[in-house]
Inverse folding.
């Protein structure tokens, strides 16, 4: 099945800094999603982005499907951005979703 | 309000005592699934359902059962729970068997099996 890698595994930022999170896939991308898990454990869908670029406030995402990667940009980070960011893709050999291991982001005041 | 509701949110129980975690969605979604989240292993899919009466195994189905008798409900059943099933569980749903649609997650159920 598809393999999903994320980098970096951990990231510590000062409030106001920008950051880029990356997701790499071993197979074709057609259902890519980004999620944020907040410190209370809730999973929030950020983007459905199988290709192209989308923006939502201070967050934006770009997927280059031909090169099998996606980037999540966080600008002017805030402490509320802390948590774990996951990307996920649907396995092309089935209907199940595969998540990456996540990037743990800590934004310091 | 569109949502996925899981119950209970927390449960401590003992080995071998059957339990059911309920999941309900009010968005008329066809696709529903269950995940477990463990430290160092991330989120792994247990079972999913493309529609009523259609269920399939995910990556880690051993020790779990599911049913999909109604479109809105997708309960997760642990017939004989064991300590290695202690985990954080999430239910999710999306429309059109998830193609082109993001998944919506419940708030999670933290299970501790002693």
């Amino acid at each position: 099945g598809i393999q999903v890698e994320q980098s970096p595994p951990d990231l510590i930022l000062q409030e106001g800094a920008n950051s880029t999170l990356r997701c790499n896939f071993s197979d074709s991308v057609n259902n890519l999603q980004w999620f944020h898990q907040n410190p209370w454990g809730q999973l929030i869908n950020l983007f459905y982005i199988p290709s192209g670029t989308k923006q939502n406030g201070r967050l934006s995402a770009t997927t280059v499907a031909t090169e099998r990667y996606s980037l999540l940009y966080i600008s002017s980070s805030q402490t509320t951005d802390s948590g774990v960011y996951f990307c996920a893709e649907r396995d092309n050999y089935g209907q199940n979703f595969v998540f990456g291991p996540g990037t743990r982001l800590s934004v310091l005041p | 309000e569109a949502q996925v509701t899981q119950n209970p949110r927390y449960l401590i129980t003992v080995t071998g005592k059957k339990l059911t975690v309920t999941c309900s969605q009010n968005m008329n979604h066809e696709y529903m699934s269950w995940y477990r989240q463990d430290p160092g292993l991330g989120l792994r899919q247990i079972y999913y359902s493309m529609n009523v009466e259609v269920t399939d195994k995910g990556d880690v189905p051993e020790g779990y059962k599911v049913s999909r008798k109604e479109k809105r409900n997708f309960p997760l059943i642990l017939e004989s729970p064991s300590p290695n099933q202690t985990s954080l569980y999430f239910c999710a749903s999306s429309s059109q068997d998830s193609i082109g649609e993001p998944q919506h997650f419940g708030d999670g159920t933290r299970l501790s099996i002693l």
